[in-house]
Amino acid sequence: MHAPQYPLRAHSSLGGHTLPTPADTQCRVRRPSRTIHSECEIGVATSMREVEFRVLGPLELKVSGRPVPLRGMKHRIVLGSLLTSENRYTSIDRLVDAVWGTHPPDTASKQIRNAVSDLRTILAASGAVITPVADGYRLNIGGAHLDLLEFHERLTRGRAQLAADRPADAIAEFRAALSLWTGPMLSGLESDILAAQSTGVNETRLSVIEECVDLELAQGRHKALISELASWIAEYPLRERMVAQYVLALHRSGARARAFAVHEQTRLLLAEQLGLNPGPELAEVHRLMLREDSNTSAPAAGRSTPASPPTDLAAVPDRPRRGAEPTTPDSAPQPTFVPDSLPPDIAHFVGRITEIRTLLHEAARPGSGRVLAIDGMPGAGKTALAVHVAHRTADRYPDGRYFLDLHGHSATRDPLDHHAALRQLLLLSGLAKTSLTCRAEELAALWRARSAGLRVLLVLDNAADAEQIRPLLPVGDGCLTLVTSRRRLTMTTWSATRVLSLDTLSRADGYELFCRLLGKRHPRPEPAAVDGVLALCGDLPLAVSAAAARLHRRPSWPLSHLTGRLAQPQLRLSDLRTEQGDVAACFDASYRHLNTVHQRLLRILGAADGDSTDVVTAAALAGLSALVVERMLEDLVDEHLLLQPEPDHYRMHPLVKTYCAQLTERGHVSGAELRGALVPALPGAPGGPGSGPYPEPEPEPAASGTVDALPAPAPGRPAEALAA
User: Fold this and answer.
1) Closest listed residue to residue 629, CA positions, set 601, 609, 660, 590
2) Contact (Cβ atoms closer than 8 angstroms) between residue 584 and residue 631
3) What's the CA gap between 453 and 94, in Å, rounded?
4) How far from 59 is each of 53, 131, 180, CA to CA, in Å?
5) Helices within 466-567 (DSSP H only)
6) Across 75-89, 288-302, 319-333, which has the greatest mean pLDDT?
7) How, if at all, do strands 35-38 and 649-651 pair?
8) pLDDT at 305
9) Rounded to whole angstroms, what are the CA distances from 294 to 107, 178, 301, 312, 399?
10) How many Å apart are CA 213 and CA 281, to the nearest integer?
């Protein structure tokens, strides 16, 4: 395309730059070179200057690559409006709206005419002409270069190459078109009218990016696209097609954990900001990743594997699930891996009829994210009940059954942090260790992504608190999570949660448990004969089991002999130990997780007469205010180390009382403490030893246990946990 010819004019100034006018004989502008050539045949060298208008980013006018100032915002908005009208007429009213919006001054039209006059002077020598049309203006840029026009030309050529089945040439044209952009169209201009006018062109740019990326993904350029897509996703996190491309590029490049994490982050963002589920493309990429992860022939990390773009994934068959056997043309069907790490059910499980009925009823209720929590004192049988219920419901969860000990209260280990717990769950789900080296947040997203849409049963045993549980919950609508903890769990932020606090066994159930474990080496005793043992065990399932096992190993002992030994406080805890559980070790695990002020109060109560107390008595013994002591007593109730039969009254379980009394005998409580003579400073008092909500006495060594430590249970058979 050639620009019209002009008569000879003198050189004129453009923003401080001297532009050549067309020659006296002829002057042509050749658009393909984007330059203005002055072929002035007057015996001097040919002069060349390039004039550029740029709107794909901040508005710019350049001469020979050097920017030309365009005065103030008003002039820039008027020029931007005329340039983006693409040689069409623009009314003065529209220019007024573009500059001032809904509140123009009375002199707005006159100011627009003045601005146009100024622009004519600036642009005259460039070949761009502003002409009046009716009550407005039209801009003809002549032979100057406008990036918006080139953008559309490149797109037209790229799509022509695509229609001719030349994808490589199409990619080259698309990339050339995209390289013209330096930011959103006309960025920096304070005009709502121009912003709205630019929206369509900005959207075209993003669509071209996605179209080009689809072509490059089909050529296997996954790794090369990751950095670019990450930048776009940071700017447009809710653009699902682009996110799907990024997720696919990550996954095919070997960054599988990151791919699942990005998908999950987008899913949550869509739900929180728009109330939407992922659309077809993003959902299809997710299904593809799950299918490839379950297929041993999935591409290895670091290997560039050609793949269809996300828009073509609908033709791929669904991922085999729920026991289905995937078939391939060249091999026989292979069974699908289904995780199952539940420990065996308890063969001698008895009682808990009401609790089992409640848990089964809650588990069967519809709703997503079902969480059932069981708390209770050490040795109450929380894990045994959870495992028993898990086996009763296992057939409802064909996509996996998981058991994970969180070590919230353990005598030998610290509680699992989020990273370690998530890593164990993902290993149980079948992922390799090498793919689990990312941060805890990414592991959490990966776990949620792998459980989405599945029916999974998860048992989280021995939790320290609700915060330890939160990132471990599966997200599938058909999932169920059973949680056990020694700490009273409220979890009020989880609407789908039912909390069940486990009490000791009824006397009838305790008798049945004792007889089952006693076996045939002893004749089945009468209930009245066993009452003494059950009472000394405080009807605690772990203690009853340990007492029966003790008698089973001593066939020469009559039942009365065992009762007599348990009646002696110094022998009681040492006799209530087996290779599968230890009452004193369970209490040690809870005691060591208390802070020093709670430990001190518990020791004082253990050394005091009787197993019951109230706030006033406990405050006198501890030498603290009644308000402080009441809060501490309530904390111990929440830890299931104190019982509360009625308001303001507290009672120690007989075995907890025995345990705390032995701590006293071993020198953990001073005579001054017993007499209530030690009166620490109250919270907040100047110079007081405590910095928390309770007064802090001098640090004391934690109890090291009243019995020898047992060997840790073998992996997969959490004996200590089952006993708790």
Assistant:
1) 601
2) no
3) 52
4) 8, 21, 13
5) 466-469, 507-518, 527-536, 541-553, 559-566
6) 75-89
7) unpaired
8) 36
9) 71, 38, 15, 20, 12
10) 14
Query: Which burial class, exposed, middle or buried, applies to 361 when counting CB atoms under 10 A from its CB (0-12, 13-18, 19+)?
Result: exposed
**Dihedral sign, CA of 541, 542, 546, 549?**
positive
Closest by CA to 241, choosing from 194, 284, 198, is 284
Q: What angle do CA 601, 602, 606 make, to 5 degrees?
A: 115
Query: Could you tell me which residues are beta bridge partners of residue 19?
Result: 12
CB-based contact 122:82 (threshold 8 Å): no
Task: Count other C-beta atoms under 10 Å from residue 652's C-beta.
Answer: 24
CB neighbours (10 Å) of residue 64? Answer: 13
Enumerate residues 6+ apart whose C-beta is below 8 A from 255. 226, 301
Distance from C-alpha of 472 to C-alpha of 448, rounded to nearest angstrom? 8
CA 452 to chain centre: 13
What is the identity of the amino acid at 45?
A
- Surface-to-core class of residue 149, CB atoms within 10 Å of its CB (0-12 exposed, 13-18 middle, 19+ buried): middle
Tokens linked to 542: 């772990």
- Torsion sign across C-alpha atoms 493, 494, 495, 497: negative
Q: Which two tokens stand for residue 648?
A: 């303001």
For residue 412, the one-letter residue type is T
CB of 118 within 8 A of CB of 101?
no
Half-sphere exposure at residue 105, Cβ-oriented, CA atoms within 13 angstroms: 7
pLDDT at 375 over 80: yes
CA 405 to chain centre: 21
Residues 310, 284 contacting (CB under 8 angstroms): yes
More confident: 276 or 581: 276
- DSSP-H helix ranges across 351-397: 353-364, 382-393
Give the distance from CA 558 to its chain's centroid: 58
Give the whole-angstrom CA distance, residue 547 versus residue 539.
Answer: 11
Task: Compute the chain's Rg from CA coordinates.
Answer: 39
Residue 704 token pair? 């090291």
CB burial of residue 410 (10 Å; 0-12, 13-18, 19+): buried
Mean pLDDT of the chain: 77
Q: pLDDT tens across 285-295, in order?
A: 988 888 776 55
User: For the purposes of burial, counting CB atoms within 10 Å of the CB of 6, is it exposed (0-12), middle (13-18) or buried (19 or more)?
Assistant: middle
Structure tokens at 316: 């791929």
Give the mean pLDDT of 339-346. Answer: 84
| DSSP conformation class of 414 | P
Instruction: Enumerate the β-bridge partners of residue 459.
Output: 403, 482
Residues 724 and 545 sit within 8 Å (Cβ to Cβ): no
The strand ranges marked E within 540-661 are: 612-614, 643-646, 649-651
DSSP 694: S
What integer pLDDT is reported at residue 294 of this predicted model? 59
Nearest alpha carbon to residue 659 among 542, 512, 552: 542
The angle, 0 to 180 degrees and rounded to 10, between the axes of the packed helices 192-218 and 222-235 is: 160
Tokens 């050490």 identify what position? 378
Measure CA of the first residue to CA of the last residue in the chain; give whole Å: 86
Amino acid at the residue 471 = P
> Hey, what amino acid is at 488?
R
Nearest to 602 by CA among 655, 652, 541, 534: 652
| Mean pLDDT score, 621-646 | 90
CA angle 456, 457, 461 (to 5 degrees): 140
Dist. CA 74–CA 51, nearest whole Å: 22
With CA atoms as reference, report the closest residue to 388 among 468, 476, 484.
484
pTM exceeding the 0.85 threshold for the entire prediction: no
Report the distance separating Cα 564 and Cα 571, nearest Å. 10
8 A C-beta contact, residue 96 and residue 107: no
State the pLDDT at residue 322. 37
**What is the distance between the alpha carbons of residues 623 and 650, in angstroms, rounded to a whole number?**
18
